[in-house]
Write a structure and sequence with these properties.
By secondary structure, the chain is α/β, with parallel strands linked by helices. It is about 45% helix and about 10% strand. It starts with a helix and ends in a 5-residue tail after the last helix.
Length: about 325
């Protein structure tokens, strides 16, 4: 099998010659954009020998300044694929695909919660923005929800443009499932409808959906309704204490991606022998059908690529 054939078979829960692997990390800022970003992605893909070429997205929804009241959400404009930050990302994706050959490429799209954070995060910081969302949801939610409508429209257009360029699918980075911010009811109103609208748009464009459920202390039940719109699901198995087997039961119609912690454990701290033994143990326990080896989330930027390659190569039967 080629790498692309292997991933496509895993996504569709068909037999594979061996389990495919997908890992990613955030590149240093000086090589994360434009032509340096193109070469950084290709170098990572070739040196780690991953089966999936996952294209990061550091071209975020632009800053809007300070938020003095919920009404300030009106400052978030409508965006589309011609907006400069999206065009910069799409240009980089096209250049990566032009050089990558027939790769199974995933473009990263940040979910509704993350995309609404980005216009404010540099001004306030990550946790204060999350707390601001909760406060405004409980005081005057309408302007916030209206802004989310506009952001969701933009993310639908971005995802569709990525598929039109030739990406095989979208890695959709979802936030909002943490128990310590939104309640279940608030999640159902302020997060889930927008996420699912974007997931549907990816499917309608012909792309595979890789749902990544980010962060710790997750109420995974909040995502049960996402299962019908996903092909692959990945979450913090170790961060949130929700096993691969539990995920397979929660998302019975999707393939599962994961198996290794991303910031600790054998992938970061173990010997190569311990790392490869852990990969084989995960595959032996979970099986080879409908499974892609990966980590809970992005790996440390400074991790040696040789460690990632060792994990990838451990999927190949001796």
């Amino acid at each position: 099998m080629t790498k692309k054939e292997r991933v496509q078979a895993a996504v569709r829960r068909q037999p594979v010659d061996h389990v495919p692997a997908c890992f990613s990390l955030h590149f240093p800022r000086e090589i994360a954009f434009d032509e340096p970003g193109v070469q950084a992605h290709l170098d990572f893909y070739r040196r780690t020998d991953c089966d999936v070429l996952k294209i990061m997205n550091e071209n975020l929804v632009p800053l809007i300044g300070e938020m003095h009241s919920p009404a300030d959400w009106s400052k978030v404009p409508a965006y589309n694929r011609r907006s400069p930050f999206m065009q910069r990302q799409l240009d980089m994706i096209k250049r990566i695909l032009d050089e990558a050959g027939d790769a199974y490429a995933l473009a990263t799209v940040h979910g509704i919660c993350a995309s609404a954070i980005h216009p404010l995060e540099a001004t306030y910081g990550y946790r204060p923005v999350r707390e601001l969302f909760v406060e405004q949801m409980r005081t005057n939610k309408r302007p916030m929800l209206d802004a989310r409508e506009r952001i969701a429209d933009a993310m639908c257009d971005l995802a569709q443009a990525c598929i039109e360029l030739g990406c095989s699918g979208i890695y959709y980075a979802a936030l909002g499932g943490e128990r310590h911010f939104f309640t279940d009811e608030e999640f159902a109103e302020a997060v889930m409808p927008y996420d699912i609208r974007i997931l549907k748009a990816i499917r309608e464009a012909g792309g595979d959906v890789f749902l990544h459920i980010c962060k710790e202390d997750l109420n995974m039940e909040r995502y049960r309704g996402y299962g019908d719109y996903c092909d692959v699901v990945n979450w913090g198995v170790y961060e949130t204490n929700f096993s691969l087997e539990e995920g397979r039961r929660l998302f019975p119609n999707a393939a599962i991606m994961g198996g290794l912690a991303n910031r600790s454990g054998v992938l970061v701290d173990g010997t190569i022998e311990e790392l490869q033994a852990a990969v084989r143990d995960v595959i032996r326990s979970f099986g080879t059908t409908g499974f892609i080896l990966g980590a809970d989330c992005t790996l440390p930027t400074e991790i040696p690529y040789e460690r990632i390659a060792a994990a990838v190569h451990a999927t190949i039967p001796a």
